[in-house]
Amino acid sequence: MKKIIFPLVTILIFAVLNFEIYKKETTLNEGKTVLLKLAPRDPRSLMQGDFMRLRYDLPTKINKHDIDKAEIKGQIVVKLDINNIATFVRFYQGEALNIDEHLLNYKRRRNMIQIGAESYFFQEGQAKYYQNAQYGELKVDESGKSVLFGLRDKDYNPLGPPEEKENL
Asked: In this structure, are 41 and 57 located in the same domain?
């Protein structure tokens, strides 16, 4: 019996993992580019290598009263300006969206709204390329799921080593 169950469970695990990877890749390839203003934190962790802790400015624009009423998980509605910078409109309640509105998934933790990835990892010794980060670049699908794609400077230019920027 073990000879049958172990391979089946292994195949199932790999199938689930590959499906999750496929969904993320689809979001990266087909998702809408959304820029979120950053308030960067400590860019160094000796235990984990080089990374930048990210804190998005958008949640600070949400009224404290509204956050207290927010679900643990949900969606917010944002509008994008001409540079794809998101601004908060409202919490999503299932209503139809206007043509210029988009969804972003959130989680509420300790009465704070968290959107997207909270860390951006990069190769050791390359912090200098990311120290001027002003925006997190997310790719967002129609259901509000997001994947952190990169960081941008104050002029909306992608950040990173020259060879990495050539591939964008």
From this structure: yes
Name the DSSP class of 165: H
**Structure tokens that stand for 129 in this block:** 């390329």
Is residue 80 predicted with pLDDT exceeding 90?
yes
Instruction: Note the pLDDT tens digit of each residue in 23-75.
Output: 888 777 888 889 999 875 654 544 455 777 888 888 888 877 678 778 889 99
Shared domain for 135 and 154, answered yes or no, is yes
Q: Let me know: does 117 contact 95? Beta carbons within 8 Å.
A: no
Domain that holds residue 18: 1-30
State phi, psi for 141 to the nearest 5 degrees. Answer: -90, 175
List the Cα angle 159/137/113 in 5-degree steps. 130
CA distance 12 to 18: 10
pTM: 0.79
Shared domain check, 147 and 100: yes
Same domain, yes or no: 25 and 81: no
3-state helix, strand, coil in the chain (%, to 5): 30, 35, 35
